[in-house]
Amino acid sequence: MEIVFKNVGYTYGLGTPFAFQALRDINVTIPHGSYTAIIGHTGSGKSTITQHLNALMQPTEGQVLIGDKVISAGTKAKDLKAIRQKVGMVFQFPEGQLFEESVIKDVMFGPMNFGDSEEVARQKAEEALEDVGIDPELFERSPFELSGGQMRRVAIAGVIAMKPEVLVLDEPTAGLDPKGRIEMMTMFDELYKKQGLTIVLVTHQMEDVATYANHVIVMDGGTSVKKGTPAEVFADASWLQEHQLSLPDAADFATRLQAQAGKFLWDSADDMPLTVDALADLLMAKFDLPMADAPSNLEKGDQAIDER
Ligand SMILES: Nc1ncnc2c1ncn2[C@@H]1O[C@H](COP(=O)(O)OP(=O)(O)OP(=O)(O)O)[C@@H](O)[C@H]1O
């Protein structure tokens, strides 16, 4: 499902002395089937734009087209239920919203709230819990007996169980350790590939943008200042700096190496290595190193974390 912003603006406290325009002149598209990252420094408007994706907020100016629904100031609440089912939101620290006495009941809550029978809701909940990697042995346990990482997965299963077409993730790995972060991002990537979802990821992690996203929207001062592929958005390091953003570490290293070597290591901006794996490939090729049968950096990193 495609989501289109047409001249969208949003003012908090409209008509009061405390009015603050947080979004202005937004014209962006979240393409159907894309993995879109929304980036931007603190206060640039990411959370505000995100809450327009399932009409939790309605624009005070312009329109948001969510599939075949048009949302503008004053759209009636009765039109919004179908949107809430189609666009699932995972906010920061979603485990804070767990409340039922068992894991399975918590995940069944959403589907039942949208009118599914208990039997259908249970089936959807079991599938969703399997998708997020929760062992069936835990289904009847209290969610509050689980580890923090497991609680977060259960909360995410509660969103996935509603079979959304679009999954919106607002800094979903906040507070996780490096291993938990990689596992969580890998899980979303698998869901994206397996279920044909559209994903919108709000993040401060440029590595995640480079590794998972295929479309990026850059926010600054309440508006979108750039959109494109990760390669297009990361092509200009000084532009990123002006907008208080940075390159992914691999691209930063490669750019410095290129500057120090004083010669081009890649042909066009599209070829700049953005991930550690792409950087490794570039260095292997440039220095004509033989390919060995050794674990990748990522696997070694995982191993090191496991051993700690
Ligand atoms: N409820 C509110 N009332 C008034 N102003 C608000 C409200 N919520 C956010 N703002 C302001 O709107 C602007 C955009 O905030 P928003 O939370 O969307 O930014 P953000 O990019 O998500 O920031 P962060 O990266 O810190 O989460 C900021 O200047 C913020 O202070």
From TrEMBL:
Keywords of the record: ATP-binding, Cell membrane, Membrane, Nucleotide-binding, Translocase, Transport
Location in or out of the cell: Cell membrane
Subunit structure comment from the entry: Forms a stable energy-coupling factor (ECF) transporter complex composed of 2 membrane-embedded substrate-binding proteins (S component), 2 ATP-binding proteins (A component) and 2 transmembrane proteins (T component).
Protein name according to UniProt: Energy-coupling factor transporter ATP-binding protein EcfA2
Assigned GO CC terms: ATP-binding cassette (ABC) transporter complex
SMART domains associated with the record: AAA
InterPro entries: AAA+_ATPase, ABC_transporter-like_ATP-bd, ABC_transporter-like_CS, ABC_transpr_CbiO/EcfA_su, ECF_ABC_transporter_ATP-bd, EcfA2, P-loop_NTPase
UniProt similarity note: Belongs to the ABC transporter superfamily. Energy-coupling factor EcfA family.
Membrane topology annotation: Peripheral membrane protein
Species per Swiss-Prot/TrEMBL record: Aerococcus agrisoli
Pfam families membership: ABC_tran
SUPFAM superfamilies noted in UniProt: P-loop containing nucleoside triphosphate hydrolases
Domain ABC transporter, residue spans: 3-246
Enzyme class name: translocase
Function: ATP-binding (A) component of a common energy-coupling factor (ECF) ABC-transporter complex.
